[in-house]
């Protein structure tokens, strides 16, 4: 796929970062605007798409778990379907769409957990775009932290146990990809924990 090549990813990220700086410079001396209706529609669409994609993946993953078991279903190259691969690709392209968050405002184990969080996350964005503040915001942050608690150890397990245990089939993922993913997930985890502490625990102590 063209957009999954290294050059394409680097180009998109460079354009994204450049857009942030250009946007900040352009809006520096201007009155900020808030396209409430556009934000609501955008977030509702992303929430619904994430829900549809998540449910579709569960339909494919269920039979694989029953047929192969948990460990082979996570790592084996035989535990695979064309539809599941298509859902992987759709989830990948969805991340490009989610970059529009920054423009409007000038997150299989990992994918399914992340999609579940995004269903709730974009629903939250949709209902708060007009000023409403739900009571469960704190729990949403906790759910975001929990996804890294679940997915992080899974990545470490895939590297340490699967690749270096003679009794288990090695995961069909290069170790460098697993290490990179684990580092990124750890950084996300630390950022969300810091936010949770600052926004809820530290704030409640001051009050």
Automatic annotation (TrEMBL):
Q: Where in the cell is it found?
A: Membrane
Key words of the record: Fatty acid biosynthesis, Fatty acid metabolism, Lipid biosynthesis, Lipid metabolism, Membrane, Transferase, Transmembrane, Transmembrane helix
Family assignment from sequence similarity = Belongs to the ELO family.
Protein EC:
2.3.1.-
Query: What Pfam families does the record point to?
Result: ELO
InterPro entries referenced in this protein's UniProt entry, alphabetically: ELO_fam (IPR002076)
Keyword Kinase tagged: no
Enzyme superclass (EC) = transferase
Gene Ontology CC: one annotated term: endoplasmic reticulum membrane
Instruction: Give a GO molecular function annotation for the protein.
Output: fatty acid elongase activity
Q: Which reactions appear under catalytic activity for this entry?
A: an acyl-CoA + malonyl-CoA + H(+) = a 3-oxoacyl-CoA + CO2 + CoA; a very-long-chain acyl-CoA + malonyl-CoA + H(+) = a very-long-chain 3-oxoacyl-CoA + CO2 + CoA
Q: Which domain of life is it from?
A: Eukaryota
Q: Which GO terms describe its biological process?
A: fatty acid elongation, monounsaturated fatty acid; fatty acid elongation, polyunsaturated fatty acid; fatty acid elongation, saturated fatty acid; sphingolipid biosynthetic process; very long-chain fatty acid biosynthetic process
- According to Swiss-Prot or TrEMBL, what is its membrane topology? Multi-pass membrane protein
So where does this one cross the membrane? 6-27, 39-59, 103-125, 145-164, 176-197
Protein name listed in UniProt: Elongation of fatty acids protein
Q: What is its main location?
A: membrane
Using the record, list the residue span of the signal peptide; answer none if the entry has no such feature. none
């Amino acid at each position: 796929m063209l957009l999954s090549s290294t050059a394409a990813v680097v180009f998109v990220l460079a354009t994204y970062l450049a857009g942030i700086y250009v946007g900040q410079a352009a809006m520096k001396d201007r009155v900020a605007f808030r396209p409430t209706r556009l934000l609501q529609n955008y977030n509702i669409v992303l929430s619904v798409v994430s829900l549809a994609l998540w449910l579709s993946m569960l339909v494919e993953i269920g039979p694989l778990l029953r047929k192969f078991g948990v460990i082979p279903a996570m790592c084996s190259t035989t535990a695979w379907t064309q539809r599941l691969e298509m859902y992987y690709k759709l989830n990948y392209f969805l991340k490009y769409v989610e970059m529009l968050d920054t423009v409007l405002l000038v997150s299989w184990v990992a994918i399914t957990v992340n999609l579940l969080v995004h269903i709730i996350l974009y629903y939250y964005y949709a209902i708060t775009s007009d000023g409403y503040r739900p009571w469960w915001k704190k729990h949403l942050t906790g759910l975001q932290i929990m996804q890294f608690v679940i997915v992080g150890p899974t990545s470490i397990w895939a590297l340490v146990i699967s690749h270096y245990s003679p009794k288990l089939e090695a995961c069909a993922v290069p170790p460098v990809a697993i290490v990179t993913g684990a580092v990124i997930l750890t950084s996300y985890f630390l950022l969300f924990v810091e936010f949770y502490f600052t926004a809820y625990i530290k704030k409640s102590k001051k009050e």
